[in-house]
Design a protein that fits this description.
The chain is an alpha+beta fold and 123 residues long. Helix content is 28%, strand content 31%. The protein has one domain: Alpha-Beta Plaits. It contains 3 helices and 8 strands, in the order ββαββαβαβββ. A hairpin with a 2-residue loop joins strand 3 and strand 4. About 8% of the residues have low confidence.
Length: 123
């Protein structure tokens, strides 16, 4: 079982503004979004995707992969930050303020998932 500190566990956020005027530009933008989804990113907002990473080295590898697969036009920003920083996020929807409910500790690479589930859960 591998436990990681909230200071080592990181998130990578990809923010982009790609041209979508021509059919070819729309196709390239769609390919880039699909590339992000295929690599474990989830859409947070339009043109904002993020995923967790196991550390700085993982962030650097993903950043190089993103750079290799981004369209030649447009702008892509990559923002890495620690899980400790992310746990302070404040999300606003309408006039309601939602607090992120974080687990106390992440468990990664655990092959025996059933061990941590309540007995009432059947997989």
């Amino acid at each position: 079982m591998t436990y990681l500190s909230g200071y080592r566990l990181m998130w990578i956020m990809v923010l982009f503004d790609l041209p979508v005027v021509t059919a070819n530009e729309r196709r390239k933008a769609t390919q880039f979004r699909n590339f992000l989804l295929d690599n474990g990113f989830e859409m947070v907002q339009f043109s904002v995707y993020m995923r967790p990473c196991t550390g700085k080295e993982h962030v650097e590898k993903l950043a190089a992969l993103i750079e290799k697969n981004m369209p030649s036009d447009g702008k892509v920003d990559i923002l890495p930050f620690t899980d400790k920083q992310y746990e302070n996020i404040i999300t606003l929807r309408g006039k309601d303020k939602l607090k992120r409910n974080n687990p106390l500790q992440y468990i990664l690479f655990q092959p025996d998932v059933e061990h941590f589930l309540p007995e009432s859960v059947n997989l």
